[in-house]
Amino acid sequence: MAWVWFHRFGSPPYFYRLATRLVPWFAWLAVLLCLAGLYGGLVLAPRDYQQGDGFRIIYVHAPAAWLSLMVYTVMAASAAVGLIWRMNVAHAVAASCAPIGASFTAVALATGMLWGRPMWGTYWEWDPRLTSELLLLFLYLGYMGLRGAVDELARADRASAVLAIVGVVNVPIIHYSVIWWNSLHQAPSVMHFGRPTMPATMYVPLLMMLAGFSCLFGALLLTRARGEVLRRERTGRWIAETLGLPASQDPNAAVGPAASDSRTASV
Amino acid sequence: MMLQFLRMGGYALYVWPSYALTLLVVLLNIFWARRSLRAAQTEARRRQLTTRGQA
């Protein structure tokens, strides 16, 4: 019985409709959290005693970097689910992650360079954290390139899933790189155990930006995943219904809603 | 007051480009995601109509 929810998510019409309903919630939550976080971070938070106002880059850099890792983890996990249970919805989610993750990895790298220049005196250093994050960008691009190179969608799903799963080892390497090796980059200030390393007026806006970017990711992912689910569905009366097409005249296509909803995973 | 805020304590050259770039990528992501969904919907609609035509 506990697996019922899992099979529901695997049902394309159920997922499509749920995603349609959820997107506005994620989107508005993202807008509210980011506006509050930006006001807190740019206006209310005090200057850093070492970095002055330069530290305020953290309010866009850390959320982008956080997304770069979270999106990859979601991508690899759904790719694994898609591969193991042959679930098309999971493949659709994985495929939707890559462009979002790649773009925010690029933002994390670029804002990191803009932060590094005044603080470290250099835009770039072949440092463990910076290098492993650059590798993450190449993993995303490789994933997208591989998908683009395979014409058949089902084969592209399987091949790219293997790449996504293998590449996931890079995620803990990025996170722990600043602890395992001597790095220019500072140690984690949010994703660590114990008390915050900064006062609440700095910390709370950062948490809001992290939550806001996560909600933005939710909205972007579900929007893209709706499209990817449609691409993987050749048949099914629910498509005509969702797209607002008139009911089909073909008696063979007139299967009941129960029949179309019971499709948990189409192989 | 406003000018002082924009100056970002001398770090304006690094802070504002960071924020501008992030905003640009967020907006692009919204545009790309919606375009991708619309393309899939158009394609699915076309496919539905052609398969019906054959039937």
In short:
The complex is a heterodimer of chains A (267) and B (55). Chain A has 267 residues and is an all-alpha fold.
SSE layout and pairing:
The complex is a heterodimer of chains A (267) and B (55).
Chain A: H1 4-10, H2 12-44, H3 58-85, H4 88-120, H5 128-149, H6 153-167, H7 170-180, H8 200-232, H9 237-242, H10 257-261
Helix pairs in contact in A: 2-8, 3-4, 3-6, 3-8, 4-5, 4-8, 5-6, 5-7
Chain B: H1 2-7, H2 12-54
Keywords:
heterodimer; A: 267 residues; mainly alpha; globular; disordered C terminus; B: 55 residues; 2 helices
Protein model, in words:
The complex is a heterodimer of chains A (267) and B (55). Chain A contains ten helices and no strands. The model of chain A is unreliable at 253-267 (pLDDT under 50). Chain A has one domain. In chain A, α3 crosses α6, α4 (88-120) packs antiparallel against α5 and α5 packs antiparallel against α6 (153-167). With 267 residues, chain A is an all-alpha fold. The two termini of chain A are 23 Å apart. Chain B has 55 residues and is an all-alpha fold. Chain B has one domain (2-54). Chain B is built from two helices and no strands. Chain B starts with a helix and ends with a helix. The relative contact order of chain B is 0.07. The mean pLDDT of chain B is 91. Chains A and B meet through α3, α4 and α8 of A and α2 of B.
| Overall 3D form of chain B | rod-shaped
Oligomer: heterodimer
> How many DSSP H or I helices of chain B?
2
Distance between the ends of chain A: 23 Å
Radius of gyration of chain A: 21 Å
Quote the beta fraction of chain B.
Answer: under 5%
